[in-house]
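Margin note: ligand = uridine-5'-diphosphate.
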Amino acid sequence: MKPTHVTLLAIPGIGHLTPILELAKHIVAFGSIDVSLLVLNTDASPAQSQLLTSTILPKGLEIVDIPSVDIACFVDEQTDVVTRISVIVRESLPHIESSIIKTARPTILVLDFFGTAALDIMVDNLCIQKYIFFPSTAACLAFVMYLPTLDQQVDGEFIHLSEPIQVPGCTPIHIDDLVNPVQARYVDEYKWFLYHASRFPMAHGILINTCQDLEPISLSALTENPILQQIPMPPVYPVGPLIHMDKPMVQSKNECMTWLDNQPNDSVLFVSFGSSGTLSAEQVTELAWGLELSQQRFIWVVRKPSSTETTSGTFFTVGGGEQSNPCDYLPDGFMSRTKDVGFVVPSWAPQVDILAHKSTGGFLSHCGWNSTLESVLYGVPIIAWPLYAEQKMNATLLVEELGVAVKPKVEKGEKVVRREEIARAVRLVMKGKEVQNAMRERVEEMKRSCLIALDEGGSSYNSLSQVIEKWKTSCIGLENVNDD
Ligand code: UDP
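Resulting structure:
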């Protein structure tokens, strides 16, 4: 029998591409298995294109561009990200299928969360087994697995419930923390989200970018909790944290790294809202004043303010694409008054290099799961400033369960975090000895546990090794049939 081939499907967005690319590299590193990463050809951001071209790819990993598909008749400018990605995947199915046919080998197909339409792919005389790669937390996965049940049980909007949502065996989810796509139930975004959630049980297994010590409660709910087990549940393999660790990502030193070299150890706060987060104009002003009032050193990745108060990821266009002049929207004189302590980077910065740098002592982050894992793996405490997707759940995990973050408060009746509160949170993390020491200790502890989990013999290493061993033999005896 021909050896098994692993085909992973990356969906658009650097927050999805980065971890699945890392997973692909880890699979290759286990040896004797060929891997293809299918990349959907969308209007990718420069950062995304750069990631694929600058990363040193191991022998045995092939990047396959899937031709772009015309989705103009299914979406318009207002269409949300979940719907857009789901439609792209659905329309790309023939291309995905033909790429599998080309390998002419038994295939393990690994799909990102929003790629579940590809669970239907069948090819005559070819054994294809399908897995899902979930690039976020176990807490979010448990919620997703439980969503079809909640959908049956709850009438009306989830956001109108008076009690937190109790996924069996998990920490209750505050209603305010619910992921964006479930905040309104009668729209396409929710329907697609539910569609993907209902299809998870069709997978042979789910790989997840977390590890035992980061999320013991949610992981045991997924694997042991009796009520959750009433839901058809494929085996769950925690294989994380998978982050981009090739060093350095930026070969020639850029200005911001040179500036960082000249700052004292642990003295700089890194401020960034992920690949596509933006703030309102009022919030940008308050943040600028807050940083200035805190009198702490900072690097701030600034973006042009959004026109609305609500922030949501755009995935496709930002991520280093849209350049603007920060002087147009930062308070008058901010740049000159802070020039000795601050460094403003428009749009995009080498985040992993900054977090890994000895001068970086704190991270004001939107709590995207990749940013969170990067911060933990480089031992940097967090100021949690969640914006969209599952980031509010992540922030609560960091503050309430892991103790590695503080969260600035929005006063009642306010739409923005005020400058005094920002300055307070910044000083607390960067200077407040007690809090700072406690958080640093916790984050160092987490970092150690994560590194142990990834190391040979660690829980995530063993989990990945177990699933790869299964893959190597999974189609034996089924080589001439499709077993789905
Ligand atoms: N990132 C970066 N430079 C930036 C902003 C983001 O390198 O200026 C990277 C960051 O290191 C992370 C990814 O983009 O790996 C963002 O993923 P995350 O899950 O944190 O958030 P998302 O962008 O998906 O909301």
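Residues 13-15, 18, 272, 274-276, 301, 313, 348-349, 351-352, 368-371, 374 surround uridine-5'-diphosphate (CB under 6 Å).
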